[in-house]
Design brief:
Chain C: InterPro entries: SBP_5 (IPR039424), SBP_5_dom (IPR000914). The complex is a heterotrimer of chains A (377), B (330) and C (681). Chain B has 330 residues and is mainly alpha-helical. Chain B is built from 15 helices and two strands. Chain B has a two-stranded antiparallel sheet with strand order 1-2. The radius of gyration of chain B is 24 Å and the shape is globular. The N and C termini of chain B lie close together (11 Å). The radius of gyration of chain C is 27 Å and the shape is globular. Chain C starts with a helix and ends with a strand. Classes of the chains: A alpha+beta (377), B mainly alpha (330), C alpha+beta (681).
């Protein structure tokens, strides 16, 4: 893993460079990939928002505002007809029903201002489920009025708050599902690809059987077989497990075919002749040759995990209220009514796209960073 | 090559047997059976009180009382020996009649989607890899991911909505009203294509996202290989260089998953079909499964899975031909 | 032969009489001073006498072509010979219509959500007028009860014909009952709803047009059944009878030729297993057999007949022998064809409507889609209107025969239901789920606007939102809260219930809201959505904590002759749970679970209730007692009632009145005479 470092670097840095471990090198190179760093930052912020959801979200995921149903997003402003203020504010809002179409329509009252404050006191929550607090990142000065940055749904629940809580659920389910399937894929695909022959043949059959079965009926069958008395937490874990258990074959098959195609490369043969253990040959010699491939697959499994979660919700195996995930939220947005009248319920889709993209870009950055030759270009 | 093919063929048969067992287990998973539903249909609203004995009698009549293993062998035996897929309870006719010409339409949708997927994803994937980290790359990636990030149901609904609003497209169905019952002709095929583009786009969009990323990733890997650098150093023209080495290899993982692409597309088909009003097997599968009309569901699952296994077999052979190292290793 | 003679005799008679004026085109909007014996319709003689005119008949110009689509039908005789001698003369609502066009409607599937379109073509011996108060003639010209309500006589129309041109007579009614329903060789188990105290009735064809139902016990309200029921009490004897050895010496050979193993199989192929009409038709079951037999479906008396059916939908054409004419003498129906398409997805239904592709749709249209549909009315060239509903009010009924003895005891305590009723903020529910259009109310075992013994004032107890009082009641029951705020059951476990529901019965928002309110009372609530089939299966198997559905099937005309829906376990489509109680009562305590005294009394009262004519003092007293038992013990917790719902029709569809009620209990469109709807071209 040597490198043709430029001779004009000063000695200390050169020394540091040569003595650095492979992963340190990768990190250094990754840091220089600007897009990947931006993506990592976005994902980091998302993760933080999820972790601190109780404080970031002004209201609970099921907390309702009965006087603002299907309400459009409210944009805090600094100026109105009465002049400007340093503190952002929103106008008071009334919901009325159109007498002909019966549609709920919110009417802002330009006469009343409600000021936005940061680190406002609001609903009593428990951070991480333990620490009690009533401080929220932001809120309204008023007891009754509520700030709905991204509007509300048909029950008057705050879309912003729900999205924050959903971020936590979806990211964690995605990550756990990906991890479980990755470990399984590594073991199964690795064994098949390295051993080849009969072992490979047997594993191939099993992988194929798991893979060719269409997922929807399988989920539906499992949904029916799952004990109905399970709590939402149990359902949550069962879901990550199911996602993981059925997510491995794609990756396993690819790991296997990559391994198969390089198992007779000279350096692998050499390692084998030198008496290296199979796990070492796979881990140290074979896997690194297509790390980026694995990374990409991992990254790309992520949206599938999220979407599988949606599919699970669709067949009734998914999360149930009061749990909320991106999938659950989009599930509720699946109507012509929403497309035409309350498009802000699609905001969680933006989160899905951004998260998925962020993973891709990070994957890209990692690929470049992991590639020892990239510097040469 | 012949021996390799023969071995794979035997493997395919074994897989098909295992798959048929798996399909049968899926058919058995939901609690209850059609006897309950049948009793409900038969007697509801008639004021007849149904006892467990009545239901048991129906069960015997429908042959659902036998032990599971016996039913499996009956089922698969009849299919293999007589091509008889059993009874479609809810339609009170044979499964073959219900599935009938829908199989053809479904195949048309699946392969139409598959072709679109490859036609779009392979060239764009290669292009994106070559122009990696450029605006074009991220733009294309973002666009393809939109198809992946939005649940298919939603995507179908939104596309349908705007297709209708902007282009005044028909809502749903595979044929326009006047063509539905017409015999097959060039005009009818044209009508089918005119209706097929929407589901094909919905289904292909997410599949494209997946394949595009795979091609792009493999291509990037291959581009970084020394052989490419060396060739470039020798002054091989860029296009020729791309086609000669990395592009060929980049298609490798795509080829190896054709069967599974079909499966993935089919998995999403029922939901899209429901929205777009396509009367094909995916939608029928969903309905049959909810109705506990298990022989219909089983037949569809079996046909599909056999097709996938067969395609995997073909892709194995193709792969060995593309990259002989695999064959030697096997 | 005799018939032809009669007809020509009539013609001669008509010719010899002094010429009368042409008949006035009477409509409901303009009756031109005529007052029919029954609302909105006349018998021919009555009409001609009252208007002092002579009605000539006209037909749909497409009728020969339409007839050509009906497999097995021969060439058509002239319209005057196709109509009964005494056709029913119908006054159209707004105008005499013109013929032609196709009515496109949507169902969910072969046997799902089809009753909307079934009702469009439906006929029965009698019908409810659109006031939902008056029973009027339809297939039957008249009816008569004996004094003690044990014998009902129907008079049919002379010369009425099936859709294949064969005569329809009293024999066809007797055949339906004696040779199909009560014939164990054809239907193994006689349907209990046509038994009376477990005894069959005697159905006799006295002459060609007179048929009597002699009942073992008094059934004063039974006529209602013919007015509101999906089931038709006649079957073509000439068609099905030929497969029965009793009527055809060569039946065995015929069955063999047509590929039927026995009588039951032959009847089943055309009729199905019961009076349900949405079962797969022969076209669906075996098209090859249909081609071999030469007849697609059994002849009908309905306005339209199925000529095509597959997994995507049904196609129907007008019945050339239909027995109604309008006041200008035009044979009905006006509309030539019906296209029934299966669209299972609600959003697609909405899109199709907004795109103007649907002529008529009312079943399963939900109130919260109304704003969307209303805003798109102009673009789709349709009208969406709200109609009052019957039987759409949701309820919660806690399972008092729960398998878990602890929950059973809690649910059996009326204070529990009272507390949970007080815990519901009905005004908020009404605003959020029902667009503020319903009325917060309790629910009993009858639809209060349809019966004299229950009024809205009786339904106000425990409807106010009073969490403090609710908590006090729960505390009083000894369900103390744990440190986590969740109440504990007597055995120390947290009090946890699950709401299992199907969105076909009740809206998911309702349950999300209820779960929230009840969580505030310290009860752990989990909501789970299932398909309607799963819900029914779970409810019938006693596997739900709380039954929740819409309270349909309890309108006066229904419960007065079939009290099933006011009792337990209800009908399988709308289970009321508690099957163990019913079993105990049916088996005189040998099996099942002994019900509390008030339930025993409820069954007693209900049994007596149907023996008195609705509206009499005895009936009112018994009805009131049934309601009181329901309300005092809060068997059901009502939420919101009198909820309107939308229905949609293309602007081209004319003569559609404002619906008095949108209710399956009156068989959807049957009171609004879809035969006289017409399409403006």
């Amino acid at each position: 893993m040597t490198d043709t470092a430029k001779p004009d670097r000063d000695e200390a840095q050169r020394l540091r460079y040569y003595s650095a471990s492979q992963w340190t090198l990768i990190w250094w190179r990754f840091r220089r990939h600007r897009a990947a760093m931006v993506a990592a930052t976005i994902l980091g912020i998302m993760a933080l928002m999820g972790v601190f959801a109780e404080v970031v979200a002004p209201y609970g995921p099921t907390s309702r505002n009965a006087s603002y149903l299907d309400g459009p997003p409210q944009l805090p402003m600094f100026c109105d007809r009465q002049g400007c203020s340093i503190r952002p504010f929103v106008h008071g809002i009334k919901t009325e029903r159109d007498p002909i179409t019966l549609r709920a329509i919110s009417v802002p009252d330009p006469e009343t201002r409600v000021y936005v404050s940061f680190l406002a006191r609001g609903e009593q929550v428990r951070l991480f489920g333990v620490i009690p607090t009533d401080i929220h990142l932001f809120g309204l000065d008023h007891d009754k009025a509520r700030l709905h940055l991204w509007g509300t749904d048909d029950l008057g629940r705050d879309v912003f708050s729900r999205t924050i809580y959903a971020t936590r659920t979806s990211l964690s389910i995605g990550v756990m599902g990906v991890l479980i399937s990755f470990v399984l894929a590594l073991i199964i695909g690795g064994t098949a690809g390295y051993a080849g022959g009969r072992v490979d043949g047997g594993i191939q059959r099993v992988t194929e059987v798991v893979r060719v079965v269409p997922i929807i009926p399988l989920y539906m069958g499992l949904a029916a077989a799952m004990p109905p008395e399970w709590s939402t937490t149990q359902v949550y874990f069962a879901m990550t497990l199911i996602l993981g258990l059925f997510g491995w074959p794609t990756l396993a098959r690819r790991i296997r075919s990559q391994l198969l195609s390089i198992r007779n490369e000279d350096y692998v043969v050499a390692a084998r002749l030198a008496g290296a253990r199979p796990s070492r040959i796979i881990g140290q010699h074979m896997l690194p040759s297509f790390t980026s491939f694995i990374i990409v697959d991992l990254v790309i499994s992520f949206p599938y995990m999220i979407l599988s979660e949606t599919a699970l919700s669709f067949v009734g195996l998914g999360l149930r209220p009061p749990s909320v995930s991106w999938g659950v939220m989009l599930q509720q947005a699946q109507s012509v009514r929403v497309i035409e009248q309350t498009p802000w319920l699609f905001i969680p889709a933006g989160f899905v796209v951004v998260a998925v993209l962020a993973f891709t870009v990070i994957g890209d950055g990692l690929r470049d960073a992991a590639d020892p030759y990239s510097e040469a270009r | 090559m012949l021996r390799f093919t023969a071995e794979r063929f035997v493997g395919m048969i074994v897989t098909m047997l295992l798959v048929s067992l798996m399909v049968f287990i899926i058919m058995e998973l939901p609690p209850g059976d059609y006897a309950d539903r049948y009793a409900f249909r038969k007697y509801s609203g008639t004021g007849v009180s149904v006892t467990e004995a009545d239901i048991q009698a129906i069960r015997v009549e429908l042959g659902l009382d036998k032990p599971m293993l016996l039913r499996y062998f009956d089922w698969i035996g009849n299919i293999v020996l007589h091509g008889d897929f059993g009874q479609a309870f809810a339609f009170e006719t044979s499964v073959t009649k219900v599935i009938g010409d829908k199989a053809l339409l479904t195949t048309a949708i699946l392969f139409g989607t598959l072709i679109i997927t490859y036609l779009v994803s392979i060239p764009i994937g290669i292009y994106a890899a070559v122009k990696r980290a450029s605006f074009a790359d991220y733009g294309l990636t973002t666009f393809s991911y939109l198809g992946l990030a939005l649940p298919n149901f939603l995507l179908a609904l939104i596309l349908l909505y705007f297709a209708n609003r902007w282009f005044n497209a028909d809502i749903g169905g595979l044929f326009s009203a006047e063509m539905k019952d017409a015999p097959w002709s060039l005009a009818k095929a044209g009508d089918l294509i005119a209706h097929l583009w929407l589901p094909a786009i919905v289904l292909a969009w997410s599949a494209v996202a997946y394949q595009l990323q795979t091609v792009r990733a493999t291509m990037s890997d291959e581009l970084n290989k020394l052989s490419v650098t060396a060739a470039r150093a020798r002054g091989v023209p860029e296009t020729k260089l791309l086609i000669k080495y990395p592009a060929r290899l980049a298609i490798n993982p795509v080829v190896s998953t054709i069967g599974f692409d079909v499966n993935r597309i089919f998995s999403e088909l029922p939901i899209v079909a429901v929205v777009l009003g396509l009367t094909e097997l995916g939608e029928l599968l969903l309905r049959a499964y909810l109705d506990l009309d298990m022989y219909v569901a089983g037949a569809i699952l079996l046909l599909l899975t056999f097709m996938i296994v067969f395609m995997n077999f073909i892709s194995d052979i193709l792969l060995a031909w593309l990259d002989p190292r695999i064959k030697l290793g096997g | 032969m005799t018939k032809a003679l009669l007809l020509s005799g009539g013609a001669v008679l008509a010719l010899t009489l002094p010429a009368l004026a042409n008949c006035p085109a009477v409509t409901v909007a303009d009756l031109q001073g005529l007052s029919p014996d029954y609302p909105q319709q006349f018998e021919l003689a009555e009409f001609e006498a009252k208007a002092a005119c002579d009605l000539g008949f006209a037909e749909n110009p497409e009728i020969a072509a339409l007839n050509g689509e009906i497999l097995g039908n021969g060439a058509l005789p002239p319209v005057s010979e196709r109509l009964p001698q005494e056709p029913l003369v119908v006054a159209p609502y707004a105008a005499i219509g013109s013929y032609g066009g196709t009515l496109t409607g949507l169902s969910r599937g072969t046997e799902s959500g089809t009753s909307d379109l079934l009702s469009v073509r439906h006929v029965n011996l009698v019908r409810y007028s659109d006031d939902l108060q008056t029973i009027v003639p339809n297939v039957a010209r008249s009816w008569e009860w004996n004094d003690d309500f044990t014998k009902l006589t129907f008079t049919l129309r002379q010369g009425h014909k099936w859709s294949d041109g064969a005569p329809f007579t009293a024999e066809d009614v007797a055949f339906w009952y004696n040779d199909v329903l009560m014939n164990p060789a054809v239907i193994e188990k006689a349907p209990g709803r046509w038994l009376f105290d477990g005894q069959p009735a005697t159905v006799e064809a006295i002459d060609e047009t007179t048929v009597t139902f002699t009942l073992p016990v008094a059934q004063p309200n039974l006529l209602n059944r013919w007015a509101i029921d999906y089931g038709q009490t006649f079957l073509p004897k000439h068609f099905l009878g030929r497969y029965l050895d009793k009527y055809n010496a060569d039946a065995a050979a015929l069955r063999a030729a047509h590929g039927f193993a026995d009588e039951a199989e032959a009847v089943n192929f055309f009729y199905g297993n019961s009076d349900w009409k949405d079962v797969p038709s022969p076209l669906m079951k075996d098209a090859d057999k249909v081609a071999a037999i030469g007849t697609a479906v059994m002849p009908t008396l309905e306005s339209h007949i199925v000529v095509e059916e597959n997994t995507e939908g049904r196609h129907l054409v007008a019945n050339p022998y239909f027995h109604m004419v309008d006041t200008a003498g035009n044979q009905l129906p006006y509309i030539s064809e019906i296209n029934e398409e299966y669209v299972p997805e609600r959003e697609v239904v909405n899109l199709r409507i907004m795109n103007g592709e649907v002529t008529w749709k009312q079943q399963a249209m939900q109130l919260n889609d109304f704003p969307l549909l209303k805003e798109n009315e102009g673009k789709g060239d349709y009208t969406v209107a709200l109609a009052p509903t019957l039987g759409q009010s949701p309820y919660y009924s806690f399972n008092r025969t729960h398998k878990d003895p602890v929950l059973r005891e809690i649910f059996s305590d009326v204070r529990f239901s009272q507390a949970l009723s007080l815990g519901l903020d009905r005004n908020e529910i009404n605003e959020i789920v029902y667009l503020g259009q319903g009325k917060p109310m309790q629910t009993a075992a009858a639809e209060h606007v349809t019966v004299p013994f229950l009024s809205a004032e009786d339904l106000t107890d425990f409807t106010e939102y009073d969490p403090a009082r609710a908590n006090a009641l729960l505390d009083e029951m000894g369900l103390a809260r744990g440190s986590d705020g969740v109440r504990r059951r007597p055995d120390g476990k947290p009090l946890s219930i699950r709401i299992t529901f199907a969105s076909q019965g009740t809206a998911s928002q309702l349950h999300e809201l209820a779960a929230g309110y009840w969580s505030d009372l310290g009860i752990q609530v989990d909501v789970r959505e299932v398909t309607s089939d799963e819900y029914r299966a779970a409810a019938n198997a006693n596997e739900v904590d709380v039954l929740t559905w819409k309270n349909d099937g309890v309108s006066g005309p229904n419960i007065s002759q079939d009290v099933t829906d006011a009792l337990f376990p209800g009908d399988p489509f709308n289970p009321k749970g508690h099957a163990d109680w019913a079993t105990w009562i049916e088996t005189d305590g040998a099996e099942g679970m002994e019900p509390p005294a008030y339930i025993k009394r409820l069954f007693e009262v209900a049994g007596a209730f149907i023996k008195h004519p609705l509206g009499t003092d005895e009936s009112n007293a018994l009805g009131a007692e049934m309601m009181k038992i329901h309300l005092d013990n809060m068997i059901k917790i009502g939420v919101v009632s009198e909820i309107p719902e939308p229905y949609v029709y293309a602007n081209a569809l004319k003569n559609v009145p404002a619906l008095t009620a949108k209710a399956y209990d009156y068989y959807w469109t049957y009171p609004y005479r879809p035969q006289q709807w017409w399409l403006e071209q």
